[in-house]
Design a protein that fits this description.
Helices cover 61% and strands 11% of the residues. With 284 residues, it is an alpha+beta fold. Strands 2-3-1-4 form a four-stranded antiparallel β-sheet, with helices on one face.
């Protein structure tokens, strides 16, 4: 978490704040306040998070709360200390600074999330929603950040161009954090067409531990009836199933497509059902 915090705060102190680029989350809101009033970012960051921290205790539990306290305290210290480092980005192009800052922020927050921590603010909101509803953290950040970054337009001396740079940072951040958090958990749907479908299905089932569904099919040109294999796998397993198919039948035809959500054994569990069950229990 400390490494992730350093990357996150450094992206702000070295790339975003020196060029007055807005961003999302509490850190983005603190930076907007700084651009408008000159109030120190670290103090704004601490005050806003102190208000939101109670929500994390009530909904996400004490373990999450303690980690969040550590992250908020450490980030506040880093916002004070890192500006003392003489190096800041000397790149004049705001677009490049927006992209680099957003990318580094996404990597830092992603590392923190993977360790079960949070830097507070909209991070807490994202984890709360993620506990009850299947929504990526990046989407939650986008909704909150649209409002925060858009408020830059109200600051005297700022223009629509400054808002656009903030949105570029937001898109970069959201994309990167989703890749960090769900990159290897993304699911794929694989169709395998082969005359040796039985041998391929056995290998996939025994060596990969994945279920295989065989559907009746017929090649329209040859009019030969066969079986089409359907396999749902993690993205990281694509190389494994490709190797199995290639080993059994080099002439096999494979179709791979991404799927949005997969629920069941070996994948994610449906969260909405739990929330609905709790609601019914309270009503009864």
């Amino acid at each position: 978490m400390t490494i992730g915090l350093f990357i996150f705060v450094f992206s702000w102190t070295a790339f975003l704040i020196p060029h007055e680029i807005a961003g999302g989350g509490v850190s983005g809101l603190a930076s907007v306040i700084n651009y408008a009033t000159g109030f120190d970012v670290s103090y704004s960051y601490l005050i806003i998070n102190a208000i939101l921290l109670g929500i994390g205790f009530l909904i996400l539990g004490k373990a999450f709360g303690f980690k969040t306290i550590y992250c908020i305290a450490m980030a506040t210290v880093m916002f004070e200390v890192l500006p003392m480092i003489p190096w800041v980005s000397d790149i004049e192009d705001k677009l490049i600074n927006s992209l680099i800052g957003g990318t580094m922020s996404g990597i830092g927050i992603g590392i923190i999330f993977l360790q079960g921590g949070s830097t507070g603010g909209t991070d807490i909101i994202a984890l709360i929603i993620g506990k009850y509803k299947e929504m990526s953290p990046g989407r939650v950040f986008i909704i909150c950040d649209l409002i925060i970054i858009g408020s830059v337009y109200l600051i005297p001396g700022k223009s629509l161009e400054d808002v656009i740079y903030g949105y570029i940072e937001m898109v970069s951040f959201s994309y990167v954090i989703d890749m960090v958090l769900t990159g290897n958990k993304q699911s794929l749907q694989v169709f395998v067409f082969s005359s040796k479908f039985s041998e391929i299905a056995d290998k996939v089932s025994s060596e990969m531990g994945r279920g295989v569904t065989a559907l009746s099919s017929m090649g329209w040109f040859s009019k030969n009836e066969s079986k089409m294999l359907v396999v749902i796998i993690r993205k990281s397993q694509l190389a494994d199933i490709s190797a199995i198919v290639r080993e059994v039948d080099k002439d096999a035809f494979i179709s791979v497509s991404a799927v949005m959500s997969v629920y069941g054994q070996g994948f994610d569990q449906i969260k909405a059902g739990k929330l609905l069950w709790n609601k019914k229990q309270k009503e009864s």
